[in-house]
TrEMBL record:
Its biological purpose: Involved in the cellular defense against the biological effects of O6-methylguanine (O6-MeG) and O4-methylthymine (O4-MeT) in DNA. Repairs the methylated nucleobase in DNA by stoichiometrically transferring the methyl group to a cysteine residue in the enzyme. This is a suicide reaction: the enzyme is irreversibly inactivated.
Record's catalysed reaction(s): a 6-O-methyl-2'-deoxyguanosine in DNA + L-cysteinyl-[protein] = S-methyl-L-cysteinyl-[protein] + a 2'-deoxyguanosine in DNA; a 4-O-methyl-thymidine in DNA + L-cysteinyl-[protein] = a thymidine in DNA + S-methyl-L-cysteinyl-[protein]
Name of the protein in its database record: Methylated-DNA--protein-cysteine methyltransferase
GO molecular function, one term: methylated-DNA-[protein]-cysteine S-methyltransferase activity
Length: 163
């Protein structure tokens, strides 16, 4: 059974989706690879209290690591990539190549990028922390402007002009 709710954030409305009461999606407006809204289930804020509390604490700079239960549905390779994303510390970045190397396949940076782009739980599974090999901001489903703003936010910048 799926349920969803929408919560506000400094980066626009976030749609939260739960499958059987467990967070299975966090989508921004106009996000690439955003599923059709008909798949989000019935509107019901009940399963999302802790997720919203942690998101609010993150945006207030009071939380750096999320610990909400999640249901990440994807291929085994995608789940491996998403698990590696969760290992990138707050305020730090990794390149697609570095993630491919950690996964044991240095030549898989493009595959890592594709899996990264299909991450169903943005922000909490921090795909925004992955950058190009030259330090450039590439490949963010929520838009490069949001990626830049999230990275600047996590760096502690007082404005969004880090990149």
């Amino acid at each position: 059974m799926k349920q969803h709710t929408v919560t506000d954030s400094p980066y626009g409305p976030l749609t939260l989706v739960a499958t059987d009461g467990v967070l299975s999606g966090l989508y921004m407006t106009a996000q690439r690879h955003r599923p059709d809204e008909e798949t989000f289930g019935e509107p019901d804020p009940a399963p999302f209290g802790e997720t919203i509390r942690q998101l609010d604490a993150y945006f207030a700079r009071d939380l750096k690591e999320f610990d909400v239960p999640m249901r990440l549905e994807g291929t085994p390779f995608q789940r491996d990539v998403w698990n590696q994303l969760r290992q990138i510390p707050y305020g730090e970045t990794r390149t697609y190549g570095q993630l491919a190397d950690v996964l044991g396949n240095i030549g898989a940076s493009r595959a890592v990028g594709l899996a990264n782009g299909k991450n169903p739980i943005g922000i909490i599974v921090p795909c925004h922390r992955v950058i190009g090999s030259t330090g450039s901001l590439i490949g963010y489903g929520g838009g490069l402007d949001r990626k830049q703003r999230l990275l600047a936010f996590e760096s502690g910048a007082s404005d969004d002009s880090l990149f």
